[in-house]
């Protein structure tokens, strides 16, 4: 398996993932100050500073407020467009971080050869269909193959992909793929359980419905023993 940098190059070449994922990777490669945006017709690079992007979002939110309330100049709403723009940029900070930056050099040569399991990592993301939150938790496991990764980096990897417009299935898979790219383990497994506000606050209004998604790679995909071991740990994780 290649390095994190090689993964990005492969994705940009179109080897893995959708157009949207490729745009995300391109965006990730850009600096914090100047971002790039793609459109549906391909990747059109548009140099926009963070400030300019916030201003454009704020203008759009001003229109939203006018549609909702008419008088968007009342005291409580006056700063809402710029506040919301900043919040939205924060919710989507994952577009402006790369896997390499997130993992740093927290990969350690280590002969530990049994499962490593991190439970109850909080997940807060925005569903790409409605741009409303979904939230829950995930459990991440891997079997080292000569290297371990800093534990906090598993949670940081979760943040990296959560802070984008997502669907739960892709988020789960991207976390697993990132761990694989970072340390090339014998296997990775990710279990995620989340509640989608688009199903709770609107639409079908099912307040108790939870969605479970899993991504299994390597020995967790191919060996029943490893899969059962992971599922036992998931079942035993503190609720
Ligand atoms: N598979 C998947 N679907 C999701 C996720 N988040 C939201 N959705 C679904 O995306 C679908 C969008 O369906 P549409 O019919 O286009 O949108 P809608 O009219 O708002 O649908 P309703 O939510 O059923 O009212 C809905 O069924 C959502 O429940 C996710 O993470 N994964
Ligand atoms: Zn939704």
Automatic annotation (TrEMBL):
Domain GTP cyclohydrolase I: 58-234
Transmembrane segments: none
GO cellular component terms, A-Z: cytoplasm
Keyword Iron: no
Record's keyword terms, sorted: Hydrolase
Residue stretches of biased makeup (Basic and acidic residues): 1-25
Pathway: Cofactor biosynthesis; 7,8-dihydroneopterin triphosphate biosynthesis; 7,8-dihydroneopterin triphosphate from GTP: step 1/1
EC number assigned by the record: 3.5.4.16
Superkingdom of this protein's organism: Eukaryota
Biological process annotations from GO: tetrahydrobiopterin biosynthetic process; tetrahydrofolate biosynthetic process
Region (Disordered) residue spans: 1-29
UniProt GO molecular function: GTP binding; GTP cyclohydrolase I activity; zinc ion binding
Class of this enzyme: hydrolase
Catalytic activity field: GTP + H2O = 7,8-dihydroneopterin 3'-triphosphate + formate + H(+)
Stored PANTHER family: GTP CYCLOHYDROLASE 1, GTP CYCLOHYDROLASE I
Similarity field: Belongs to the GTP cyclohydrolase I family.
Name of the protein this chain belongs to: GTP cyclohydrolase 1
